[in-house]
Specification:
By secondary structure, the chain is of the alpha+beta class. It contains seven helices and nine strands, in the order E-E-E-H-H-H-H-E-H-E-E-E-H-E-E-H. It has three domains: 34 residues; 55 residues, no CATH class; 129 residues, Alpha-Beta Plaits (2-Layer Sandwich), CATH 3.30.70. A hairpin with a 5-residue loop joins strand 6 and strand 7. Helix 3 runs parallel beside helix 4. The longest helix is centred in the last third of the chain and has 18 residues.
Amino acid sequence: MGKKKRKGKCEACGNSPRVLAQIESGDWVCSSCLREIRGPQRPKHLATPEQIARLRERGFSVPDDLPKAEYRRLCAMNTLRDRGVPCHSSATLEQLEDLERRTYVNQRSVNVAGVSHSNGDGTSRQQIISRCSAGEALILRHEADNPFDRNAIAVLRQNGEQLGYLSREDAAEVLENAKQGWQYVPVISKILDDGIRGHFLGVGVSLVYAHPTVDRGTIEKHVAELCAKFRQAY
């Protein structure tokens, strides 16, 4: 109801002129008649019936008049419990959000840049990449003295062999966050090879990152699981 609007005579009450809305039947009615047709509206501060149903499916016993603020709090609690993070049922939304930041490990996909070039010591990055495989954990190293970009971050194997760099945009973001204590671990997600002779190999990386308060053991466990997943996939 109320998909279109125009001015004219209401086809329900006959009053004119009015701003009219077209309802599902095709009639044009004024706002007063539209409110009567729609009936009482659910207060905006309450969660929708669909939201309440989702919580009940997850085992929460909630009333039909659940406030939206409580809905958000219970959703945050459900997310943490799904991750195996213990949280008190009386915790506030702010406490739950803080707990999520301190315990959550995430990742995003990036591609290593500069893979077609050779390293400063003359080694071929292409040859190094050919020896790599999916599921290999890598190292990031900031090159503050890099003449082309002071934010440059090299991507290395555990033995120190360099595959290339993070893109300029990714490096700037990672460096800024790292200064605030955020933790990063790159993992090879796949070796990019289109199979065409003369084309270069590329490296897809899953960049794992975590809030400064996440303990190292949690990050290492996440990285180990991610490495196993990529090795199995490829």
